[in-house]
Write a structure and sequence with these properties.
Elements lengths: L2 H16 L4 E5 L5 H10 L3 E5 L3 H8 L10 H8 L4 E3 L10 E4 L14 H10 L7 E5 L7 H12 L8 E5 L18 E5 L2 H12 L5 E4 L2 H31 L4 H8 L23 H10 L6 H27 L8 E5 L14 H11 L3 E5 L23 H5 L3 E4 L8 H7 L3 E3 L3 H4 L8
Parallel strand pairs: 1-2, 1-4, 2-3, 4-5, 5-6, 7-8, 9-10, 9-11, 11-12
Antiparallel strand pairs: 6-7
Helix pairs in contact: 1-7, 2-4, 8-10, 8-11, 11-12
């Protein structure tokens, strides 16, 4: 293939992107894929959403959003530009750009699990063609795009950087964030070659307000890990400080608020019952795993992970002591959990510390219930199972409990009613400290 032919393939794809003639295929219609589909459709592209869940496909084609912060009306709007959801992966060949947004969890031994990525590549590789762009957005270890995805492309008889383009651009979704969305969050982008990066930049520049190009796919992969490791380490530090301050009879929230008045050199992170979501509890371990390949032991990162993972046990131990002071055993106690989403005002329970607290309480033989305005019934999850539905939060239901644990501080909760009627209240989020009231905290 001549240089002129190679340049013509690149130019043709960029022209199709800039003229909005390109069709974008997004694989994985979840918390990353759906917002990206909305952003792409809003930018004028025809979007084809791929998923293996038929219920999800039917829901999306009926313009019913399964995500609280994405209105169904947004799906209706992009449907006008040709949005459609499908499980027919043979239609990958119809797409000019393919973006993979599938989960990358950890397995039971906390090793990276790329099975969703590799199974996706198994399904689509036979349909890849000349003149396409393939982007991976799923969080992973540095080197994944080059070492895992690229061989699939080459096996399909395509040459990356010449007749096919491969990039990595990590998702930066923050469900429920009222200040930033897919369009306004800057997008880091690394290409396998300069031509790959140029095509990727053309695509994402048409969708988001700012693209931040870096030197390689591995640099982009590492960027995503650094962002979440920084948060994990800082939250882990605050969680450890919380335990120390509590042992000394000090209020850690008062101390953090005082330290935050320093106009330089201090960023306020707050403790809680643990960390949740698909990123912060998982992403750091992708780097610790990869670092072992280089003979490195990332002790600092792993320590933060251990501290954060220990917080649900700390909360339960706090409850055990509080009940014991009232002459009540934990076994058989009626305990109400407030909030099972991993953060306020969303419905996402992935890796939620509330779920781990609930499992510990169940193991103790607790008479357990929960209330969450965003999660009416405990969802189907791969590794956690509860046959529970959210109960109505009333003075009567609160008074019936032996203890109430505030784990997620949804703004829909009536904190005055909770404080007035809960016989024993464990506040893991410092809500009442911020309201000028002191109640038992964990």
């Amino acid at each position: 293939m001549s240089i002129q032919e190679i340049l013509a393939i690149e130019k043709t794809l960029i022209n199709r992107i800039e003229s909005r003639q390109a069709k974008i295929g997004i694989i994985g219609m979840g918390y990353v894929g759906i917002p990206l589909a909305v952003a792409s459709g809003t930018a004028g592209f025809s979007v084809l959403g791929f998923d293996i869940l038929e219920d999800r496909i039917a829901q999306l084609n009926a313009c019913q959003s399964p995500i609280g912060h994405i209105p169904s009306g947004a799906l209706e709007e992009i449907q006008k530009n040709g949005f459609e959801a499908t499980s027919d992966f043979s239609r990958i060949g119809d797409c000019d750009a393919i973006i993979i947004c599938v989960p990358t969890p950890l397995d039971k031994t906390r090793e990276p699990d790329l099975s969703f990525v590799t199974s996706t590549m198994d399904m689509i590789s036979k349909f890849l063609r000349e003149g396409q762009l393939l982007a991976l957005e799923s969080t992973t270890w540095p080197g994944t795009t080059n070492e895992v995805l690229k061989p699939y492309v080459e096996k399909a008889g395509l040459t990356v950087g010449k007749d096919f383009f491969l990039v990595y651009s990590p998702e930066r979704e923050d469900p429920g964030n009222a200040h930033f969305n897919t369009q306004t969050i800057p997008k880091v982008l690394g290409g396998d070659t300069r031509a790959c990066r140029d095509v990727g930049e053309a695509l994402y520049s048409a969708i988001v307000s700012k693209v931040v190009p870096v030197s390689s796919t591995a640099a982009a992969e590492m960027t995503k890990l650094l962002e979440n490791i920084q948060r994990s380490v800082n939250i882990g530090l605050m969680n450890e400080m919380k335990i120390v301050a509590n042992a000394m009879g000090l209020d850690i929230f008062e101390i953090i608020d005082a330290a935050a008045t320093k106009p330089f050199g201090f960023t306020a992170y707050y403790p809680g019952p643990g960390i949740g979501g698909h990123c912060i509890p998982i992403d750091p371990f992708y780097l610790t795993w990869k670092a072992r390949e280089y003979g490195l032991h990332t002790r600092f990162i792993e320590l933060a992970g251990e501290i954060n993972a220990s917080m649900p046990s700390y909360v339960v131990n706090k409850l055990v002591r509080a009940l014991s002071e009232r002459g009540k055993a934990l076994k058989g106690a009626k305990v109400l959990v407030l909030g099972i989403a991993y953060k306020r005002d969303i419905e996402d329970v992935r890796e939620s510390p509330s779920v781990f607290v609930m499992e510990l309480l169940r193991d103790w033989g607790v008479d357990l219930s929960y209330s969450d305005p965003h999660v009416p019934a405990f969802p189907v999850m791969r590794e956690h199972k509860f046959d529970l539905e959210s109960i109505e939060l009333t003075p009567e239901t609160l008074a019936q409990q032996d203890a109430v644990i505030l784990l997620t501080d949804h703004t829909d909760f009536d904190f005055e009613v909770i404080a007035k009627h809960a016989p024993l209240l464990i506040d893991t989020r410092g809500v009442y400290r911020r309201r000028g009231k002191i109640v038992p905290t964990a």
